[in-house]
Amino acid sequence: MRTEICDRLGIDVPIFAFTHCRDVAAAVSNAGGLGVLGAVGFTAEQLEVELQWLDEHVQGVYGVDLVIPSKYEGKGVEGLSPEELEAQLAKLVPQGHRDFAEKILNDHGVPHLPPEEKHNQLLGWTATTVAPQIEVILNHPKAKLVANALGTPPDDVIKQIQDSGRLIGALCGSVKHALNHKNAGLDFVVMQGTEGGGHCGEIASVVLWPQVVDAIGDMPALAAGGIGNGRQVAAALAMGAAGAWTGSLWLTVEEANVPPAQMQTYIDASSSDTVRSRSWTGKPCRMLKNDWTEAWEAEDTPNPLGMPLQMMVALDGVKRGHRYPEQAKDVNFNPVGQVVGMMNKMERSADVVQRLIAEYLEACERLNKLNNA
Amino acid sequence: MRTEICDRLGIDVPIFAFTHCRDVAAAVSNAGGLGVLGAVGFTAEQLEVELQWLDEHVQGVYGVDLVIPSKYEGKGVEGLSPEELEAQLAKLVPQGHRDFAEKILNDHGVPHLPPEEKHNQLLGWTATTVAPQIEVILNHPKAKLVANALGTPPDDVIKQIQDSGRLIGALCGSVKHALNHKNAGLDFVVMQGTEGGGHCGEIASVVLWPQVVDAIGDMPALAAGGIGNGRQVAAALAMGAAGAWTGSLWLTVEEANVPPAQMQTYIDASSSDTVRSRSWTGKPCRMLKNDWTEAWEAEDTPNPLGMPLQMMVALDGVKRGHRYPEQAKDVNFNPVGQVVGMMNKMERSADVVQRLIAEYLEACERLNKLNNA
């Protein structure tokens, strides 16, 4: 299954693993794929620690996934520190929204964080917080690929990363987004179908993938949204994708730093249990349906705000859920794709990579048999 | 791409074409696939005429798609004629819903039907109207396959059709539905992803197909939802499907009896232009977004009723839209899947079948090259 982007990156198989856990990223890179660390939520200092760890534990290369706003400058935020920017934004959040979120968590008995675990709220989600992350990445030669989770990055960021010998790409949920990425000169796109976990569009993978491939010509297009099995990798490559970009799959591996109670929730869930909801981040994001998502859907409750304001409302819930996963079982933030229905046991990351390759070859063999019958 | 179900049916390629137009069904069957006529909306007498025409124009075999309610008996409708049943149901429709539908159509200047074109409302959508259709099918030996669009058919219908030497299957949108079909002894399932046109579930094809294939074992599973290109057929077969079930694709072929204005709407639409709406049939159904679907979505308007009551509200709109497609351009019933974004020109049905086969082979070749590189 080796495609051209494998040669450019020096990896064996075009299996890309998006994960917030460095152990998973390292395991996938060392198994022949490419681990991609999600950097959102890390300060520049924390990211430096993570990438140093990856440098030590990865034999080849790895990637980093950022949230780079397309309006990197402007909007009157020049010169504001992240803290000042956040203070400005905080004034735009209605108290009723904060109260509603607080009530959902309290009604479910989710404890408050201890005061010593207070946190910055918007790390990596605004222009002023992402620039220092990029500086960090540029100091780590094994960090060979940068992906942007939301929109086309600004020209200067693209140039800066490409000039350093790295590849930069971005996610897209439609042909239009893909063409924007191509016109901006990105090296690859990640085309994510609506079934994918986290932020996603409305168009499903089977329809999206071949259209993006046709639209962007010889620019590599990685298939995302729904992939948890090598047969799906074969399907993606048959439709012209240059590789498979996976995310949900790595929530139930041994190396994942997902609390056991939350991991069990993923293992138990079926493909019917997800919903595209704006209730955590303000943008449509696929996650497990639960009391939190239902509460924000109800008719007589506040409507979710936009991004990043809804995140300021919900981030306390994310942190409390992460800290107290048992108590937050029914109101936790569980971003995951419909492929959750295929994630039925805990596996080792390296075994997952091997399984994907074996299933891929089996699927190719199935086609060959049909054609030679 | 010949699979076992091809041998059972005596067809060359496992390309199934669901269509309401006999000319399309005949063209696909004669090109080596299987045309499947949607029988909903036909009286038994009309269906007899259609199938006689198909007998004359199809060299091999064809299929018929019905809407057989799973509760075929009972619910206090025994002995009621279709007209009596409809009169009973009509009493359950609030006048406010009828008025709202009427207002949408009138506001858009869609003329009323001439009095001589009055119509029965619920043909084929209730137990009492579908039984005579089955009798008709059993008299046509070339009608070799029966598919049920909604749910598992009752045991006596399954037995009746299988005893006659025909295959009977049903659509499903989840593993659970597929297992119900298997346990009822059906011959095949059509697993339809959420991207598909018409009634559909929430699970996308890439995630649904491999799960259903694994769940039902050696029972043939046809892949539906999003297929408009042979690369997608290759993807489906790579994931273990026994064939491709297509529908939307046949709305923009030369032989389709779709009014030119409506066909142009399909040709112009992108994959972002569809919505899953209950506004026409009462069940979630994928169609083009327009002023009608938006009107029923708005906050201060009636909520769609269930099936079949919403159909009684909306059927006049279907008929007026079909009769006056120009005027109804923005309020017409345009059931179609997300693959509409790939339907960009009118083609001949036989050419579509040939194209699907050629693209399929190209996709298989792409995989072979990757694996032998």
Describe this protein's structure.
2 copies of one chain form a homodimer. In chain A, helix 10 (230-238) crosses helix 14. Chain A starts with a helix and ends with a helix. In chain A, the strands form 2 sheets. The first copy, chain A, has an 8-stranded parallel β-barrel with strand order 1-2-3-4-5-6-8-9, surrounded by 7 helices. Chain A has helices spanning 4-9, 22-30, 44-57, 82-90, 95-107, 127-138, 155-163, 175-183, 205-216, 230-238, 260-268, 291-297, 309-323, 349-372, and strands at 15-19, 34-38, 62-66, 143-148, 167-172, 188-192, 198-199, 221-224, 243-246, 274-277, 285-288. Chain A folds into 2 domains: 4-77 and 126-257 and 343-372, Alpha-Beta Barrel (TIM Barrel); 79-121 and 276-338, no CATH class. With 373 residues, the first copy, chain A, is of the alpha/beta class. Chain A is globular, with a radius of gyration of 20 Å. Chain A contains 14 helices and 11 strands. Chains A and B meet through helix 9, helix 10 and helix 14 of A and helix 9, helix 10 and helix 14 of B. Chains A, B: InterPro entries: Aldolase_TIM (IPR013785), NMO (IPR004136).
